[in-house]
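Minimal example, chain plus zinc ion.
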Amino acid sequence: MPIKFPFSRRRSGPTDAWTKCPSCEQQVFNKQLERNLRVCPHCGHHFRMGIGERIELLLDDGSFAERDASLESGDPLGFADQKPYPDRIEAAKVKTGLREAAVWGTGAIDGQRVAIGLFDFRFMGGSMGSVVGEKIARCFEAALAERVPAIIVSASGGARMQEGTLSLLQLAKTTAPLARLDDAGVPFISILTDPTTGGVLASFASLGDAIIAEPRALIGFAGARVASGTVGEELPEGFQSAEFLLERGFVDMITPRAELRSTLSRLLRLLPVAPVEEIEREEGQHAWGPIGVLSGLAERVGGAVSETIGIRVEPDASGSGNGDRPARSPGAPEPATTEDER
Ligand SMILES: [Zn+2]
């Protein structure tokens, strides 16, 4: 028997059937938007996408197998702002049908196996708490153990403030396995979608062997006003856009959504997982580690970053960007390899 609501529920009225494009302000028919991969047919604005749609877009049909689906956030700090944290999680679960802001698993792109993690911005702003960090770290660890490339599709406001310092720890937790992936010759492809900001950008998302952004995605650390206030100057228009960052080498390519899958497929062929013998031969040579990338970035933007985050950046005389083992002096012998990998 159908349930009768005491008030009218207009499920198919004009407000539900149409979406106003925030870029060109045209009304777009929702069905058309979905057919067009949630890209505005008038101006090419890329609307945000859910995890299910993203999996359908990128992976071979039926190839995705989710892992660690049952991981759920606790409330380690007993945190409450206007609402207790567990209530916020509950509301996000109801809204999205997800258990957390990220999902990871294995799948295939044109038959090439990958470990892939995806964010949903609708779940508490895609924020990274302990569970999201754990999922991303496990995705990288599985990529290492199974020797398949790792891909993360980010959409996040950054660290989850309801988990305080524990959220900040996720930056280290998600970044550390990347050094091991790098040593093992297993590629990581980072896909930045609108928006990728805060602690997610400041950790694994900016450390891809290839970094792909969607057109006009907002990519930045702090909000524009805060960033401007911190450095005490007007920052150029659109300085947190994918296009601005591409021009300055922070992003490797901007790929429209319709081409994302074919681009990934091509990249996976161009960046194969190194055979194990090759890695053994290269032992003792420095790989271009993630921390090398960070210090490289710090050099490029001058002293600002190092002063802000309190690290001393030394120009790398050899130019090899070998910041991955900073504690050893140049003359010291190589440590016994890969102990930490077992
Ligand atoms: Zn538009």
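The pocket of zinc ion is lined by residues 21, 23-24, 26, 40, 42-43, 45 (CB under 6 Å). The longest strand covers residues 188-197.
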